[in-house]
Amino acid sequence: MAHVPAAERRPQLIRAAIDLMAREGVAAGSTRAIAAELGVAQATVHYTFGTKEDLYRAVLKQLTEELIGQVERAAPEAGDFTEAIAALAAALWRTVRENPRNYRLLCELGMLASRTPGLIEVHNGHYRDTIGATADLVTRTAERTGQRLAQPAEAVARFFLAGFDGLSLQRFAVPDEEHEVACLRALVSATVAFADGRLDLTPLPVH
């Protein structure tokens, strides 16, 4: 069998790991199973990545890059600020609807990484990068449309992503197309209202 350089084998193994774990869950992602998915020896996985933790780190980074790419491509060239936030919501929601396995895998890996010392930093980096990409989109769109931001762009990004993540998790547990569409529209409206200062930010009383 011809030798395949590690630089070429690496993306193949990452994709095989994503395909396997998206289909069967993170728990199924042993180095032996991932090797079998690609049709190579188990030693090839260890030679390319060193440990399963290193492979998981690469998978999480790959999924993060794909998600950020979707965020960046969601920015429309025309339209107002509300239409831009709606386009972002629609683009991300399509990934949840059309490729739910990958989005679920990203959630599963995030939970695993948050409890694994060697993966915590890449997990935190995933959130930092996703928030940063969304904040950049908010900033560029506000500048293009002349939209005044009453809140920092990062705060707007965090607000939107918090609502989107919650809605995505609900879809996995209790899917309901009609309510999901209504909630997504409400999230867009609330995000815009938060961004331009119309959302009531009066602190709730704490007892």
Question: What does this protein look like?
Answer:
- This protein is mainly α and about 210 residues long.
- The chain has two domains: about 1-50, Arc Repressor Mutant, subunit A (Orthogonal Bundle); about 60-195, Tetracycline Repressor, domain 2 (Orthogonal Bundle).
- Helices cover about 75% and strands about 0% of the residues.
- It is built from nine helices and no strands.
- It has helices at about 5-25, 30-40, 40-50, 50-75, 80-100, 100-115, 120-145, 155-175, 175-195.
- Helix 4 (about 50-75) packs across helix 6, helix 5 packs across helix 6 (about 100-115) and helix 7 packs across helix 8.
- The longest helix is centred in the middle third of the chain and has 26 residues, at about 120-145.
- The N and C termini lie far apart (about 70 Å).
- Pfam families: TetR_C_31, TetR_N.
- Keywords: DNA-binding, Transcription, Transcription regulation.
Task: Provide a concise account of the structure shown.
This protein has helices at residues 6-24, 31-38, 42-49, 52-73, 81-98, 100-114, 120-145, 153-173, 177-196. The protein has 207 residues and is an all-alpha fold.
